């Protein structure tokens, strides 16, 4: 009697499990299909009109950082102190470069959003991470950002 009851309970649980799975599969329906486009971000950054002035400013900042490093270092400093100065100057240079590029990156990102919304793309990824895509919006984003 106990074996029959146990068999009935196991059967019922098994059936509920299968029925529950079917119900979950029926309930889960993806909302939409994602439409994906790619962009060569580095190409846009290199070809946007501001890129020449950004490069000139970065070169100037690099020269200034080199002069600051040379001015801050002397023969009496230990190698550890020289490394600290080098790290400080490099950190300052990186922050200045980030601040220089940030407005252009925001402009490009806004152009990407605009093009994506106009064409109904739900995902835009950089082309260096995509093996294949039929839609490349690089030139359109570049034209929108100009």
Let me know the number of strands: 2
Strand order of the largest sheet: 1-2
Return residue spans where pLDDT drops below 50 for at least 5 consecutive residues: 18-29
How does the major sheet shape up? 2 strands, parallel
How much helix is in the residues? over 70%
- Computed Rg: 29 Å
| Percent in strands | 5-15%
Through-space gap between termini: 82 Å
Strand and helix order: HEHHHEH
Structural class: mainly alpha
* Averaged pLDDT: 79
Any idea what the shape is? elongated
Count of individual helical segments: 5
Describe the fold and architecture.
- Helix content is 71%, strand content 5%.
- It has five helices and two strands.
- It has a two-stranded parallel ribbon.
- Helix 2 packs parallel to helix 5 and helix 4 crosses helix 5.
